Amino acid sequence: MRIIPRRIEMKTLRYPGWKMLYGRRKTGKSFIASRFLYHDLYYFVQRDGAILERRSGARLSYHELLKELSKNLGKKTIVIDEFHRLPEEFLDFLHANAGRGESDLILLTSTLWLSLRLLSKKESPILGIVLPIKIGLIDEREVIIELSKEVSGKELVEASTYLREPMLVPLYKPPLREFMAQYLYSSGPVVEDLIGEAFTEEEILFSEVYRAILHAVADGKSKSGEIASYLLSQGLLDSPSSIQKYLKVLSTMDIIRKVPIFRKRRRFSYSIASPLLDLHFYLSSKYAYTELETPLEFIRNAVNEKVPRHVEKYIENLLGKVYGLRPVRIEEPDLEVDVALQGFKRLELVGEVKWKSRVKREEVWKIEEKLSRFNCRKVLVVPDESVLESEPKTVEVLTPEDLLTLAQESLRKELGEE
C-alpha cells in the first residue's frame, strides 16, 4: 500500500507528554496514531458512546474506561480516538490525573470546533496539560518525494498537488486528471462529509453559512467583501462585517487559506486549502453535481480548468517552505504574479507558472518584462523546458525535477539529516 511517512509531524509527535491530535476528518490522525506511534492501549469511542479497545476487541462502557485509565495512566501509553464523544466530565478526569507517571496519553478528535473551544477558553480543564498538534494536509515536500518513486515530470507535480489529501493516497492511479474526474463522479457525496463534523459537537451537517462561504470561495470570490456580498444576497448574513468571525474559524481550521495582500495592511485573500474540496465546491456551485445527474465530461472539464490554478498554489507553498518565506498576493495593476513570497521585510521571490504544452516566445518576453519590475529572485515554472519556444535570459527556469531536488534538500535539513 502506498504510504506517505509524514516525517515532519512525527518529529513533533515523538516529544514526551500528553498530546491532542486534531484536524478535519480523513487527514490521517488515526492512521498515524495506530501505525506510527507506540501505544499499549488504543480506545476508539463510537458514535453511540460504546468504547472499543482495538487490540483486544473488548467493548467497554464509559465507567469501565475510567477504571482502566485510573489503573494505567502514567504506566502505559494510551490512545483515545474521537475522545470528544465521551461525557464532558471526562475533561475534569484528565485534569485531575495530569502529570501521573511518564507514559503518554494521546487524544484524537475530528471535531475542530470543540478543539478550538477547549484550547482557547481559560477555564478549559485540559488547557496547558496537553500539547495540541494539528494534523492537516500532507506537507508539499513529503508528497512529491514519495510520489517521485512512481511518476515524474508533469504528472508528479499534478499528483502531488492533490495527494496532499491523505484519503486519495492509496486510491490514486495515473493519469491524475482522469483519476480526479472519476473519483468525484463516483464519490462526490462523500467529499462534503470530510468537514461536516468539524463544526458541531453533534456531528450534524455543518451550517449553511459555512457551506455558502466555501461555494463562494470555490467560485472565485477571494476577498471578504465579495464573500460577504454573496452571503448577504442569500440572506445568510445580518451585516457585511459579520463575515469575519466565520472566516476566522475556517482559516484557523485550515479549511480555507488566508494570504496577506502585499502592501495592504489587514487585507487578505482567501482560497480553499484542499484542492479536492475546492473542486467539489466548485462543481457543486456550478452544476449541483451531487444532486443532479452530471455527465462525466462536465467534471473532466472542471478538473482541467482547475488543475493549473491548484498547481500554482502548490508550487508557491512548496517554494515558501523550501526557502522559509510567506506567500502574499500582489494586486497592484500589471504586477499580479502566480507566485509571490515575502521575507521578514521585503519580497524575496516572485514567479510565473506556465502549466501547458507550449509557451510562445512572446509570452516569455512578457514574463521577463513583468518580473523585471521586481528587485528580487525571479522564477518561471514549466512542466518541461521543451515547452519554451525561447529560453528566458533574466528569469530562472524551474522544472518538476528542480522542485523535487529542492524538496529533498529542504526536508533533509528540517529533519536534521544533514
Automatic annotation (TrEMBL):
This protein's source sits in the domain of life called Archaea
Name the UniProt record assigns to this protein: ATPase
- Identify the species of origin: Thermococcus peptonophilus
